[in-house]
Design a protein that fits this description.
The complex is a heterodimer of chains A (62) and B (533).
Chain A (H helix, E strand, L loop, with lengths): L11 H12 L4 H19 L2 H13 L1
Chain B lengths: L25 E4 L3 H12 L4 E4 L13 E3 H10 L2 H7 L1 E2 L2 E6 L2 E7 L11 E3 L2 H12 L6 E4 L3 E7 L4 E7 L2 E7 L1 E4 L6 H5 L7 E13 L11 E6 L8 E7 L3 E8 L5 H4 L2 H12 L5 E14 L4 E2 L2 E3 L5 E2 L7 H21 L5 H28 L4 H16 L1 H4 L33 E2 L2 E2 L1 H4 L4 E5 L10 E5 L8 E2 L5 H6 L3 E5 L5 E6 L4 H11 L10
Parallel strand pairs in B: 1-2, 1-12, 2-8, 5-14, 12-19, 23-24, 24-25
Antiparallel strand pairs in B: 3-7, 4-7, 5-6, 9-10, 10-11, 13-16, 13-17, 14-15, 15-16, 17-20, 18-19, 21-22, 23-26, 26-27
Helix pairs in contact in B: 1-4, 1-8, 2-3, 2-8, 8-9
Classes of the chains: A mainly alpha (62), B alpha/beta (533).
């Protein structure tokens, strides 16, 4: 997976809505914690550490 | 002085005030775009109606301005689309800005071979004017009654009785059906005490129409511009659209709780507009402040009272799903109601209007709610995600699909609903293509049609038959001059198309007569036995 890929098909809005819903009702600290857990879960799902390093760089450089 | 010159419609003394009656089976309440389109649609099916409106002029203010391709295809069937297209502003390119930078642009319809563009912009008052003039083509079928306020209605043994108040007295109008086309603030709905609550968004938007001779667009080509967090309106959204007559629509998001009376003043508005258009001279034509609501009725059909358009459902405006959704309601209801009134189908067919359009409006509400939520973050974390999505979108195309400034109206699919016979492509609205010397859609709309693509023979089941791009048959066939039709539909494929252009059934290779008859009966809401071939 690379950052150029259009990964959501026709369901991007549905994903974004679910992401916002996951944060609904959380305070700032709880949202930070949720985001941290989510990053770790996604990283494990991706698994490829070289790809993850490229994504970290893409996020840092954006 | 508004740019549009309003032509007051006369009050005509109706027969009911002198002891007579009209005998029209349908009463339409509201002569807006939905009520007028409904009247024309019914007239094309040979059904008489009375249209009642408390006012006597077309829409005050431009209001609905974006008309989608599917709506234009429906308006083509009603006979007004050529005028709309000639007058309207055609745009295809949308640009999205974040702060001072352009994030990306998109082209709505990069594909050739369609009669109508993806969208045109045209003020609601022109649409109503064209529909009104079209309605006057049917003096024996459409009875237009302006300055006629409906103050009450009730169910009767035969249908519905309406209390009507006019400058020359009050009367009771009897009809078999009442179509409530009386808009978001529907009095018909209020009288029936129907619950109409849903999500209301706290943010307010200000609409300003300005008349301006110099185009803000490169080489004057009209576009849709949307800004998140522009320098001229920090932290908020803004939208710019072009309309005919050198009118520009500007939408500005306001603070929650901003006073509408304070914001909708020239002192507040003019500096903001100058920040968008620079030094170009302009004149303010119309101002309005509104809040978003996303609501629909639980049921669109209540006995002999049917809710059509905004009286049944309201959506936030981003995505142009209000007016366009309402015209799809008309398209869906017209042929069904006509079939029931003619005695070709029973009232259960009208019930499927609720099934299908409630589904369509739920889809519109889902899309417009998502767009509104993206545009108006409720919490700091929502604002953070949106900001970073916009930031990533500059260099990472994937993030652009998450940016939601309104998902523009496309026809909903009716797949899986009761009138359709399951199969590939079933439920979709037919896609246009050049055929013969004209276009495909006018050939397949307005009545049930079997249409075959390539080498496939169509049996006679009592509906129109059209062959495209195949051998000569015992019915009308047209060639596929540019190859678009067979490319879009395949070859050896046939569809049973409903009068509203949606596909009711699909056949591959051959069309079995009995199967086609069964599909037709199903599409008419009948549960009949299969007729032997």
């Amino acid at each position: 997976m690379n950052a150029q890929q259009m990964g959501f098909g026709t369901r991007g809005d549905e994903f974004y809505e679910a992401l916002m819903a996951a944060h609904d009702g959380l305070d700032e600290a709880q949202s930070h914690a949720l985001n941290a857990r989510l990053v770790l879960l996604l990283a494990n799902w991706i698994g490829d550490v070289d790809a993850l390093k490229r994504l970290l760089k893409a996020a840092t450089d954006a | 002085m508004p740019a549009y010159s309003y032509d007051p419609q006369p009050f005509v003394r109706p027969p009911e005030l002198d002891g007579g009656s009209t005998g029209a089976p349908v009463a339409i309440v509201g002569a807006g775009p939905i009520g007028l389109a409904m009247a024309v649609d019914l007239a094309l099916h040979g059904v008489r109606c009375v249209v009642l409106d408390d006012n006597n002029v077309v829409s005050v203010g431009s209001r609905a301005i974006c008309w989608a391709k599917r709506t234009l295809e429906i308006f083509d069937r009603l006979g007004v689309a050529d005028r709309m297209l000639a007058k309207g502003v055609t745009w295809k390119v949308g640009r999205l800005f974040h702060g001072a930078d352009e994030v990306y642009s998109f082209d709505l319809l990069p594909e050739d071979g369609h009669k109508f563009p993806a969208f045109i912009n045209l003020q609601q008052y022109y649409v109503e004017q064209y529909l009104l003039e079209r309605a006057r083509d049917f003096p024996d079928l459409i009875d237009l009654r302006f300055v006629s306020q409906v103050t009450g209605h009730r169910a009767t043994d035969a249908g519905v009785a309406l209390d009507v108040v006019t400058p020359e007295g009050a009367y009771t109008l009897h009809a078999d059906w009442l179509l409530a086309c009386d808009g978001a603030g529907s009095d018909t709905r209020a009288r029936m005490g129907l619950d109409f609550t849903g999500q209301t968004f706290e943010e307010q938007f200000l609409i300003a129409d300005i008349e301006m001779d110099q185009s803000p667009f490169d080489q004057g080509t009209p576009e849709r511009w949307f800004w998140f967090d522009p320098d001229f309106h920090p932290g908020k959204s803004a939208l710019l659209h072009m309309q005919p007559d050198n009118l520009y629509r500007i939408d500005l998001q306001l603070d929650p709780g901003a006073g509408a009376k304070v914001e909708a003043t020239e002192e507040r508005v003019i500096p903001r507009i100058k920040a968008i258009v620079g030094d170009r001279p302009f004149r303010l034509d119309w101002l309005s402040v509104y809040k978003f609501r996303c609501i629909k009725l639980d049921r669109f059909v209540h006995g002999r009272v049917v809710f059509v358009g905004d009286s049944a459902h309201v959506v936030s405006p981003f995505g142009a799903r209000g007016g366009n959704g309402g015209i799809q309601d008309v398209d869906n209801l017209g042929w069904k109601l006509a079939a029931v009134i003619r005695g070709d189908a029973d009232a259960a067919l009208v019930e499927t209007y609720h099934e299908e359009r409630s589904h369509g409006s739920a889809e519109n509400i889902l899309n417009s709610t998502r767009a509104t939520n993206f545009m108006t973050p409720k919490t700091p974390i929502e604002a953070l995600f949106r900001h970073e999505t916009l930031r990533l979108a500059h260099g990472h195309p994937f993030a652009r699909q998450l940016i939601n400034s309104g998902r523009l109206s496309v026809p909903c699919s009716l797949a899986g609903l009761s009138l359709q016979t399951p199969g590939p492509a079933v439920g979709r609205a037919m896609t246009d293509a050049p055929v013969g010397n004209g276009w495909l859609l006018p050939l397949v709309q307005g009545r049930f049609t079997l249409v075959g693509f390539g080498d496939i023979a169509l049996p006679d089941i009592g509906v129109a038959r059209i062959g495209i791009g195949g051998p000569a048959q015992g019915y009308a066939t047209h060639d596929d001059p540019q190859g678009y039709a067979l490319q879009r539909y395949g070859t050896g494929v046939a569809h049973l198309v409903r009068p509203d252009g949606h596909i009711a059934a699909t056949f591959h290779g051959t069309v079995d007569r009995g199967a086609a008859q069964t599909a037709l009966a199903r599409a008419m809401g009948k549960r009949c036995e299969r007729v032997p071939a």
